[in-house]
């Protein structure tokens, strides 16, 4: 590939679709104009959408391939990021795209979280690896905002939200991956109230870089004498360069980059081994003032990070789809199936071939369905902000839906992102396997989304082990009620009735299977739960997505009625037709899986538990 | 990763499983000892299996990672393969592993094709990219063996089967990928009977290399005045270096490497753009003596190549599974689910966790099922060789099953290989995403298997458009009868009855859907066929695999009865337990999909055909 191609933006998003979700389907307008979003209206939101997309394409997009090809390296104990990353970081913070939803107290614009997710989708999709540095910085700052002392907030927040310093989250250790409770990093309290930190953390994204003058690590560690497991963990602020009380930089802290990983993808993001306190001179301070609060504090960041991973998934998948669509419209190959016997029939664009259309519509429905789910989650979060202190019931309902949907968004979006990328490659054919097109990189980048920030099985266990029963099952019940209401309102829909019937059956399957899983806890069939958890998460995600796609189709069909005839309404008509067909396709081809999965889980097959460990292979 | 790790063999195969398939399930012995396999018995076959595996691990395996990292490059118009490839090539041909099933006429060992597939699995699995050079050479030689003139056979075969010269297949052109009939490469007959070849071929695997003194290209081209489409194509032998009548090398032919592709994987395999006749001095000779026979000739090679791609899939998937299994037994993380509330409970190997067991058993059942399908196909091919001229009915039945199963083996194995690699990465967690372990490379290598040698949709259309109706449907009927007989014989099996019931339902679903597809051809619903083809291929593959896994389980359960008690029988008992659980798992979790897919296809959803092209997106 030529240098010019390596530096070309390949990112694409469909802004019409974004606007449909924000304003037609999820009516974000209803939350705008009142506190805390007094300063925001539809125009302001729309302007940010347009400009952020332009920024993503102009600044982040052209660095995606080069970041992948060049990757990160260590030079003199410091990580060097790919060429152009530093300039892009500076432009990002100059333009203010990371502070759209940051509080004005910290120089942010105080916008809705929903808008933040849209901006994030653009930035992730244009350059998933590059956007990890600001993404994790944002998450680390949020933890300090919510749990830090006033002094910590003063010292760190403007500098972190503003891009002067970056942030990381340091959980994983060589012996403690999914099993965070096994962390051995230790913290010993000093006379001045600071802590000496000692231990090794691995897989630390952005653990070092050359973008900022300082890196603020949030480190999980165990204070001497603390209980074992997750309950004994505390969270510490451990800057790479020590910070004086006036915010100026002191000497280097004892944090050493041991190594960086060589990975399948996201090569532009440095994944570091960090050694804290090798020379017994690593000082950290407790986040807040109370020890052993590390896990709840970290979970605040994890929740945001999990939504971000869902955004990474949909952003990459969406661009993979749109690139495949462009190729399918351009590339001519073969004749129409209706003329397959005539060797002289004209060659047609591959989008004319039924299997290519099937792949495209499959990708479209998944991408748009997942995005709808994320926007729904984000809107619930904004509703919490609006209703808090005004309408407790509404706030609780919305918070409950956020909690319930986070594992779905993280796991389903990331798993599907990889599959959509696979389909996109297949749509391209051989060309998709080459580095001349972006889809093979998307596919490699996407694989990690199913792994980090809690593997997708951990998400599934969070769903079935915690979220289903949360508040006595009230959140699940509210979700199921919402779906049931939609079914009831639309079961005689002139165009969608058959699809709504599928939705009803999927609803029954999910409700029934949820009951079955809860009964396993009670009947002492505990090991069956993790065996079924991933499948259940998939069922529930597809129910949610089927619902939201059908809801979108109802809205689209209604909107079509009001369109002017002929050319004036042609563009909108095409768009709404797309919404309709995506819903029809998903309802006929994907939604039935919930019912099938319920049948499979109903057999309670335990072969995977029963097989002896030495029976897997004779090697 | 250290240099030592990059040069370490990571390939693994389960030889006990191979022996089970060869001798216990598919009773290859019954075909040995009679012509053309007179010289072969169980011991000879077993020895080749052991030694070929050792060779694959010792010689091919250590070059897999380095081939990926270093890749191929062009130097002075010549492709340079990764370090070590030339030595490995020489050792391969010295050891004779590529001539196991080559006729003694050409210095081969005349062994069964089934054994060849086992050897190929080892070589592909140890180094998929490296093995493409000898694999394509073998295929090209086979075409010359079957269609070439006696002079061509004399000139080329010993040199190609013996590794002195390599071979390629040159079909694809920039405007003619899946649509081979659009090929523009031209052939103009000269007075001496040779042809001037002119055109550009792309995606030519092994199109150039530094392993052999000559490369023999088989080039599809159109003779002046030939009809359009595939029917006007002829096949030519076009050597890189001209060959004198005595077999000595002449001057260079006019074949120029224009470029090599940069790909997602199989980086050790050179993927070339070849320009033939840029200076109007490229001479080729017709394969055989009759023009316009290019497609049937190429199809002979394609058939073999498609089986090879199926082998690539299962080989890589199998090693991914076995590497994940090893990691799951070694890696300790978390406590047993039965002690999840106790932070001090001992850490356990991750194979103790239900979801890890589920992933492992899922991979095991798919890998072993696909391998069984390939061995079945290969055995049918050997049976054709044995019965030809002795028992026409048996020969025809076996040839029919080969024809029917080729698209299943190519498409299902390759699609599943990518999925199994995905699951293997997930089993490793973060470690699987790094280049410290081989699974991420396996995953990248595997993606192309679904694309080349005819995309998997082309395989699906070959199945539903040609193979289902072949001979009035006799091959499909024979296949379905074989399954039905197995069901009948085992429907009251004491352990497997419930699984056999699943098999019966899958059988009904496949038979019914086949009828439905055939009716679409007749009812003028032609565009529905390609829309359903991939799903049907999956249904039929899973029926076949479910059957073969259950057949294996019946055999395993019977064999277990005869085992000595205690330690003496422990290893075999564990192995047979594995066969049993793989079948139970597949029957309960995968086999029902055939029934579900039949239900989905029964709706005849046409949304992908109906959606207007401009409704896919507003970009």
Automatic annotation (TrEMBL), chains A, B:
Its cofactor is FAD. One of its GO terms (cellular component) is plasma membrane. Keywords: FAD, Flavoprotein, Oxidoreductase. It comes from the Bacteria. It catalyses: 3-(methylsulfanyl)propanoyl-CoA + oxidized [electron-transfer flavoprotein] + H(+) = 3-(methylsulfanyl)acryloyl-CoA + reduced [electron-transfer flavoprotein]. Residues 293-463 form the Acyl-CoA dehydrogenase/oxidase C-terminal domain. Transmembrane segments: none annotated. Residues 86-163 form the Acyl-CoA dehydrogenase/oxidase N-terminal domain. PROSITE patterns: ACYL_COA_DH_1. Its EC number is 1.3.99.41. InterPro entries: Acyl-CoA_dh-like_C_dom (IPR025878), Acyl-CoA_DH_CS (IPR006089), Acyl-CoA_Oxase/DH_mid-dom (IPR006091), Acyl-CoA_Oxase/DH_mid-dom_sf (IPR046373), AcylCo_DH-like_C (IPR036250), AcylCo_DH/oxidase_C (IPR009075), AcylCoA_DH/ox_N (IPR013786), AcylCoA_DH/ox_N_sf (IPR037069). Residues 169-276 form the Acyl-CoA oxidase/dehydrogenase middle domain. Involved in the assimilation of dimethylsulphoniopropionate (DMSP), an important compound in the fixation of carbon in marine phytoplankton, by mediating the conversion of 3-(methylthio)propanoyl-CoA (MMPA-CoA) to 3-(methylthio)acryloyl-CoA (MTA-CoA). Belongs to the acyl-CoA dehydrogenase family. This is 3-methylmercaptopropionyl-CoA dehydrogenase. It comes from Sorangium cellulosum (strain So ce56) (Polyangium cellulosum (strain So ce56)).
């Amino acid at each position: 590939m030529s240098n010019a191609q390596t530096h070309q933006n390949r990112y694409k998003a469909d802004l019409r679709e974004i606007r449909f979700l924000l304003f037609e389907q999820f009516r974000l307008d209803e939350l705008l104009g009142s506190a805390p979003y007094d300063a925001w209206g539809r125009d302001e939101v729309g302007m940010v959408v347009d400009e952020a997309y332009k920024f993503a394409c102009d600044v982040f997009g052209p660095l995606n391939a080069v970041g992948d090809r060049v990757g990160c390296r260590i030079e003199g104990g410091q990580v060097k990021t790919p060429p152009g990353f530093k300039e892009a970081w500076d432009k990002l913070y100059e333009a203010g795209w990371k502070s759209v939803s940051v509080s004005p107290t910290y120089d942010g614009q105080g916008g809705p979280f929903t808008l933040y997710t849209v901006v994030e989708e653009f930035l992730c999709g244009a350059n998933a690896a590059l956007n990890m540095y600001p993404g994790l910085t944002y998450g680390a700052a949020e933890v300090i905002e919510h749990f830090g002392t006033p002094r910590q907030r003063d010292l760190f927040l403007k500098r972190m939200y503003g891009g002067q310093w970056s942030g990381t989250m340091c959980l994983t250790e060589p012996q403690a991956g999914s099993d965070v409770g096994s962390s051995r990093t230790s913290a010993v309290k000093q006379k001045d109230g600071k802590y000496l930190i000692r231990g090794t953390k691995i897989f630390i994204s952005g653990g070092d870089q050359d973008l900022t003058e300082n890196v603020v690590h949030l480190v999980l560690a165990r204070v001497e004498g603390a209980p074992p497991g997750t309950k004994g963990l505390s969270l510490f602020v451990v800057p790479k360069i020590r910070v004086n009380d006036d915010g100026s930089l002191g000497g280097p802290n004892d944090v050493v980059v041991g190594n960086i990983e060589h990975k399948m993808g996201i090569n532009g993001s440095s994944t570091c081994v960090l050694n804290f306190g090798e020379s017994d001179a690593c000082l950290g301070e407790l986040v807040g003032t109370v020890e052993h609060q590390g896990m709840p504090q970290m979970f605040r960041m994890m929740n945001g990070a999990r939504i971000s991973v869902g955004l990474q998934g949909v952003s990459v998948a969406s661009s993979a789809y749109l690139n495949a669509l462009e190729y399918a419209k351009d590339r001519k190959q073969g004749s129409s199936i209706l003329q397959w016997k005539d060797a002289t029939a004209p060659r047609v664009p591959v989008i004319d071939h039924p299997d290519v259309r099937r792949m495209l519509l499959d990708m479209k429905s998944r991408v748009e369905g997942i995005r709808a789910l994320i926007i729904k989650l984000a809107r619930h979060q904004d509703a919490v902000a609006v209703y808090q202190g005004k309408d407790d019931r509404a706030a609780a309902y919305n918070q409950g839906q956020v909690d319930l949907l986070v594992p779905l968004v993280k796991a389903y979006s990331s798993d599907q992102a990889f599959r959509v990328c696979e389909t996109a490659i297949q749509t391209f054919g051989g060309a998709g396997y080459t580095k001349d097109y972006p889809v093979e990189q998307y596919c490699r980048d996407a694989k990690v989304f199913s792994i980090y920030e809690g593997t997708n099985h951990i998400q599934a266990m969070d769903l079935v082990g915690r979220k289903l029963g949360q508040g006595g099952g009230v959140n699940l019940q509210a979700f199921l009620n919402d779906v049931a209401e939609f079914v009831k309102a639309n079961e005689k829909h002139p165009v969608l009735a058959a699809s709504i019937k599928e939705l009803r059956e999927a609803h029954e399957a999910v409700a029934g299977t949820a009951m079955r899983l809860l009964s396993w806890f009670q009947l002492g069939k505990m090991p069956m739960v993790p065996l079924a958890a991933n499948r259940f998460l998939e069922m529930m995600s597809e129910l949610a997505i089927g619902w939201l796609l059908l809801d979108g189709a109802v809205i689209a069909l209604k909107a079509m009625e009001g369109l002017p005839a002929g050319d004036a309404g042609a563009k909108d008509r095409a768009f709404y037709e797309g919404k309709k067909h995506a819903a029809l396709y998903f309802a006929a081809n994907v939604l039935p899986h919930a019912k099938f999965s319920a049948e499979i889980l109903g057999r309670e097959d335990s072969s995977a538990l029963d097989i002896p460990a030495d029976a897997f292979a004779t090697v």
